[in-house]
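Why show two proteins at once? Because comparison is the fastest way to build intuition. When a single record is shown, students tend to memorize it. When two are placed side by side, the eye starts asking what differs. So, the first record is below.
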Amino acid sequence: MRKTGGKQFDRRSAAATGDKAAPRRTPKIESKRSEPKREAEPSAHPRPEIARKIADAPRAFRRPSAELAVLYGYHAVREALRIKKRVLLDLFATTAAAEKLAAEIKDSGVFTHIVEPETLSARLGRDSVHQGVLLEARPLPDLDISEIIVNSGLVLALDQITDPHNIGAILRTAAAFGVDAIIATDRHAPEFSGVLAKTASGGLEHVPIVEVVNLARALDQLGAAGFWRVGLDSEGPASLEETALSRPTVLVLGAEGKGLRRLTRERCDVLARLDMPGPIKSLNVSNACAVALSLAHAALARAARAEGG
């Protein structure tokens, strides 16, 4: 993931000091360089356990940067609050959403602002399905291939898949199957936040992401580490069901239309296809991933039972 170095945002506010403002005090006039004011004033919540802090005055959303991940949607935000893999900065939630996330908010201690739904729609776009909640956080920490911990014995490698909805769906499926890691190129890939995180429905917080400069080199490293490298290809010589798998296995998926690139194909130990019994023989990459993971998971389970006698 993107590096998380650099200075962290100061999370202090007037609410943290405990001072009471004088009723007739003239408000301080901010300079033009200070952060612009938010449109909607956050209101204090009647239940104090909803948030550790409520700002006395509205603050603008942070500007987009490589040091900022914006997550929205109930499941994506709930898992980020619950798992605590990343640094949490500020939570913006409607009263109803804050009520629903009360336990996670209290446990995480995240600085929370109660806002109107329109404020979130103005930030994310009118068509965004934010479900009343937006979280500003740091990107997940970087992970190296050598740091992958083998549990399920399955890893996914994505060869220039660029659609955030597809990658989000792949992440959700990977989390369901307990995939040990997903490897993606740091270029020709979307940001691991926003609509991708929303589509992943919390899966982003559960599946380690390894971003690499060169996928072919990464597959070389995995091969040297003992991974069996299986490339999914519609022209593969055998079906995945008929392909012998060993633990650990990395399934390599290509972009829709383009498939696997030449150097990626050359690094695979075997190429396999998905045989579909119905009249439609092709699937989009996220659906193909779900089928492949189901077959691979079952094959590794059978192999484990056979080894155990």
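Second record. Ask yourself what differs from the first in the token line.
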Amino acid sequence: MCNAAKDAHLCGLKTKKMRSQLLVVAGLIATSGAFAQGDIDATARQKAEEALRTRTAADTLEGWKTGGVFQLNMTQVYLSNWAAGGFSSVSGIAMFNGTANWKKGRRAWDNSLVLAFGGQDVHNGSGPQKTDDRIEINSKYGYELNKAWYLAGLAQFRTQFTEGFNADGVRISNLLAPAYALAGVGLDYKPNDKLSVYISPATARLVIVTDQTLWGGSTDPDLRVYGVLNGETTAFEAGGYVRFQYATPLAENISFMTRGDLFSNYLRDPGNIDVTWETLWTFKVNNWFAATFNTLLIYDHDTNLPKVNPEGLPYAGPATQFKQTLGLGLTFKL
């Protein structure tokens, strides 16, 4: 009987010990679950905050972004009884570069306007002369196919403000003489805000010459001026087109921009590629003054310029055109 009581007592102790162990294990499981739930909640909150920041950053990049720079460079020289010789003169160039870009989701629309006009008046009896004259409008609409690549359509229009003359005083250009209207569809590579390369294998270009005096009274029906036949006002061209643009700050007060166009006319002399290449360096002095160094290179096989052959005889033919401008003047950011 004593043994039976002792066994019952031992069984009770074992039961209590097992209950205590079960309670400890349950407590550990509950505590671990609470910590795990806390980690899950913290991770979820962190992901939600990151998603919100991403959406906010994307929203700030979308919508319209506009900007522009107006520059005015002036030079004036006055001479009176100057023994070394020379003439008094005044010259100036006004330039405007403006952009209006829109982006929403996978769609992007980039627009730019370039205006420039300059002249000089040398007091030697020759009268005022034009040194710069330019109107250029660009518009490009694209849909993002994947990262950095867009299916895009581009339109461009180029002409000048007023008539231009050669060294002999003969008019050689005018408003809408020439003018170039271009439209095409292609791919636009934009890996970042600095670089854009547009490639179009199918581009239509219309060359316009509305000033009939540029043919000089010739009756030759095969004579072309800027690619337009005598007696016509337009010439249609179809070909391949490439446009690139790169802009970046080089230092705190120095910025650099370059852009160019290449066009090959499939319908006539496709090997003669029209080239336009421009560079612009801006050296900022303060918020109002800046120095600029600008170059512009143009080659158009349909533009005939005065040349001299090896025998010394003058003739007209295509040639590379180059212009360089260095100025210091007022700069206004819009």
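One difference worth noting in the second protein: The chain has two domains: 1-61, 65-333.
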